[in-house]
Amino acid sequence: MTVDRELTMSRAVVEAIGTEMRENDEVFYMGEDVADYGGIFDSTQGLLEEFGYDRIMDVPISETAYLGAAVGAAQQGMRPIAELMFVDFFGVAMDQIYNQMAKNTYMSGGSVSVPMVLTTAVGGTYSDAAQHSQTLYGTFAHLPGMKVVVPSTAYDAKGLMHNAIRDDDPVVYMYHKRLMGLGWLPSPTGPKTPVPEAEYTIPFGRADVKREGADATVVTLGLHVHRALDAAATLAEEGIDCEVIDLRTLVPLDRETVIESVEKTGRLVVVDEDYRSFGLTGEIVSSVAEEALDALEAVERVAMPDVPIPYARELETEVMPAAADIEAAVRNVQ
Amino acid sequence: MYADMVTARYYEERLQEEYLEGKQPKFDISAGPIPGELHLAAGQEAAAVGVCHHLRDDDVVTAPHRPHHVAIAKGVDLNRMTAEIFGRETGLGRGKGGHMHLFDPDVNFACSGIIAQGCPPAAGAGLAAKKRNTDSVAVAYLGEGAVDQGGFLESLNFAAVHDLPVVFVVEDNDWAISMPQERVTDVEFASKRADGFEMAGVHVDRDDAVAVYEAAAEAVGRARDGNGPTVLSVQVHRRMGHFMGDPQSYRSDEDQEAAMDRDSIERMAAHLRDHGVDDEAMAEIREDAHARVDDAIAWAKDQPKPDAESAYEDVFTNPPSGVTDTEPEFDLAETGGEGE
């Protein structure tokens, strides 16, 4: 089926949420500035007009209260979607996220489920400094009990959101601000893709090979899928053929696709906008080392160094992994 | 107080101009000499000067993400604050903090971009003063949208139960981004929250710097005399959007116009006129303030951009071996800071 229309990632996300809300009265959305404003990052644009304040709920600036309320409503069988405006704000409500939302299923011996979606914006690239620019993939993927989703295109964003709302477990849905298609924060061209009008789901735990190649495996997610694809295009001119794997979900993590790719290429570069130490890059490298050490000829990590994200553009550019950094890493593993 | 008010207002106007450079005709938040978010405080000057004019350098202020007016009233080095906002090496945070994260230890000023999260550290500063038996006080500024946060409410209880010298100043500008106050709380004034903690609560229902000054005299005096904390809420107004680029489509024109009509600076000027200050003297104050701001902006823009390698410095005060860190290469005494 060919699809004529292209959507931005935010429109694709909103379309999935609207469809699920229409089909299921138990789905509702809570967050700061999600009603009249439509979400600071356009995550609920247009939904208030159709669903009203009862189902598109503006909340007080009280993350502990409303994220915890989402947990409580979910435990009653409703399907709340609760938005944490910036992932950096997680700290004011982390108990409700880490100790309640993520653990209640386990601690109840499986007798309680928490079918909620926690949406949150991640990412830098526009000089908003250390309290508004983090990605924190590793923070959320590290503690068991939450599924963690990171789309990089509008097509994936819609299918993953349908799946997230229907999932019986808590899902953390992390969207990169630079991919949403915001008027005031331009996106690269990649995330705007054809999106079918009909609903469809993308199952969790299946990475997508966004580019096939024979010489090196580049594993990444979110904004850096697009930077990796840019790097791959440049490297192709030099005769280096990269495979670019978009993980799409961190929990569950599709280690198999990564390992298969490394068995083909022998060379691994992992790219992450989150901090280098104790995070995603280490997880991917160790997974490959455990399962395919013989195939592994060289490894490089490209990640945010272990510093808080600086404000000045020169400093943020220095620490933020760029396409050129990915190119250099791929050349290093050849 | 009038001088600080007009300095703050003109500073915001000039920052707005600078911020929009490179962002027109199409607004791109990542473009221009001042990227990132910019939250302006035009309309809130009375709350800043009315309280801070009771404070000394050893008194502590924590400000939220909308900090410039409070910083100016507290005496933060204007040159180095501006250099920070422009992301320069000689800025207060060597270009690492930006406008929401300004730190000037010389006058005990700090900021946080996370709602209400300056309250616990202010209580901690009050605790330090009490333990050391000094008479310095701590002031936490927050917006009315922040009063539902645990960080604020827990700090009230902590400060009350330990009789800490803290004043919580709630700047009530009616809007928590797009949410009007009545949709987020049933409590009319933030000062009423104090009742639940058996502590003093005072509300100033107009953006009148003199009225704020008088109310703050009592609150700061209570803290300084060892008689415990106060919640002081002040009605101010938000002349701009929540941040630069906020289209404010949620806000009615009448509300916006009402905010523009209620000008605390005009009110202050009228007060001064009533007390015999002539227009010429006030014009002189304004001219001096404008010159000071223009000089700070010119100085800041002339400052060096940080060396990219400095991104790896300052993670720790005492860096573990193997972690890059060095002392700043410039001498702060020679940066042209005002040293006031």
TrEMBL record, chain A:
Cofactors that this protein relies on: thiamine diphosphate
Protein name: Alpha-ketoacid dehydrogenase subunit beta
Gene Ontology terms, MF aspect: oxidoreductase activity
Protein's organism: Haloplanus rubicundus
Keywords annotated in UniProt: Oxidoreductase, Thiamine pyrophosphate
Signal peptide range: none
An example Gene Ontology biological process: sulfur compound biosynthetic process
SUPFAM superfamilies in UniProt: Thiamin diphosphate-binding fold (THDP-binding), TK C-terminal domain-like
InterPro entries cross-referenced by the UniProt entry: THDP-binding (IPR029061), Transketo_C/PFOR_II (IPR009014), Transketolase-like_Pyr-bd (IPR005475), Transketolase_C (IPR033248)
Origin organism lineage: Archaea, Methanobacteriati, Methanobacteriota, Stenosarchaea group, Halobacteria
Entries under Pfam families matching the protein: Transket_pyr, Transketolase_C
Residue ranges of domain Transketolase-like pyrimidine-binding in the record: 7-182
UniProt keyword annotation of RNA-binding present: no
Domain of life, source organism: Archaea
Automatic annotation (TrEMBL), chain B:
Required cofactor names: thiamine diphosphate
Example of a GO MF term: pyruvate dehydrogenase (acetyl-transferring) activity
Gene3D superfamilies: 3.40.50.970
Residue ranges of every copy of the Dehydrogenase E1 component domain listed in the record: 31-308
Comp. bias (Acidic residues): 326-340
GO BP terms, alphabetized: pyruvate decarboxylation to acetyl-CoA
Name of this chain's protein: Thiamine pyrophosphate-dependent dehydrogenase E1 component subunit alpha
Organism, scientific name: Haloplanus rubicundus
